[in-house]
Amino acid sequence: MDPRFRIVALVAAALGLLVSLFLALRPSDDEAAPPPPTTTEVTTTSQVPTATATGTTGSEGPGTIHIDYEIVGGRPVGGIARDLSRAAASSSSA
Question: What Å distances lie between residue 52 and 10, 48, 49, 55, CA to CA?
């Protein structure tokens, strides 16, 4: 094999490696640096709760449906029954 061909092949391989590394390691358009955070002056007001405030009903949000189920052997036993009375009550009160 001609020694000049080996040198040309080595240079071509090195250039190919450099080009591929450049394309792989450069930041893409999606990875643009996020804009610096803006500083705003925060004003807070504190409110004293009134004595007539009603208590919370728990951590249930609107439209929460409770599903009762039992798992035996990795499968639900007897199917899954939804408590539709709670769902109907919460949707009618909204």
Answer: 84, 12, 8, 9
* Domain regions of the chain by residue span: 1-26
Please list the helix, strand and coil fractions of the chain in percent, rounded to the nearest 5, in that order.
40, 10, 55
Torsion over CA: 72, 76, 81, 86 (sign): positive
Partners of 71 in beta bridges: 76
The span from the CA of 4 to the CA of 15, in Å, is 17
Token digits for 35? 């804009």
Query: Which region holds residue 48: left if phi is over 0, alpha if psi is between -120 and 50, else beta?
Result: beta
Element (H, E) at 31: none
Q: Is the whole-model pTM more than 0.85?
A: no
What does the pLDDT look like over 44-85, one tens digit per residue?
A: 666 655 545 444 555 666 777 777 778 888 887 876 666 677
